[in-house]
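Researcher: Re-running this chain for the archive, since the previous output was lost when a drive failed. Same request as before.
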Amino acid sequence: LVRLQGFGSIHTESGAALPNVEMATTGFYSTFGSTGGGNAVTISGDFTLTSGTFSVNTVVTVLGDAHLNGGIITNPAFDPFNGQLVVYGNAFLAGTDLSYSLNHMHFWADVTISAPYAPTFGFIWLRGGDNTLTASGTVPDFKALRVAFGASYTVVGDIDVQTVLRVDGSMDLSPTQATLAPDSLNVSGTLNSVARLDLSGSLVVGASGNLVLGNAAHRVQGGFEVTGSMTMTGSLLLDGTPGNTNFRSTPPVPALTINRP
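Model: Regenerated structure tokens:
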């Protein structure tokens, strides 16, 4: 067990790994390196963050579980390749401040969110083969969420997505989810939901995609392009601004209203 209780930097050489790591400090630890790329950190066991600031400007890989109970995780790099957390075990988001979050967080197993979660930055990747995303308490508000190819997740509890929801694998949303309202939705895998769709941007269902929605008053304000399979009952309102008028649908759509200048 490695306990981080003060100030400093950490990294692991190629092929090396830290055992279980616990961080509980009033201090600050960095994954040592300059902006644009630090030294990678691999943790072979579990990672527990209780307090302190963990600054990540590289790729931190946790082979065990991640218990994010408190403290802050921040990313000083803000580039597309560094500032990443990869968790192969179960992930528990239970109080760590992730509002200034990482570029990417990759989860390969179950994810449990039991504390307010509303990052202003970053992409969450769900990569597990047959897993659960559980949300309780305050509805988590993902900045952007992607279900990777080959991944499969069942969602327990409601979720919100601010910008992009992309489903390349399979996702079953909770039957309590009343509205699904990211800026845009892109489905090349399978998304099952009874929710009402309310998009401020575009809907794309690719040729291999399968989108199932509930019986509701759906609204799309951007482009609408469905070449795969879609079950949408109720009504559909295309309600957007000029320039977002592309409409293409291979499967039938419900009662359609177009309200665009």
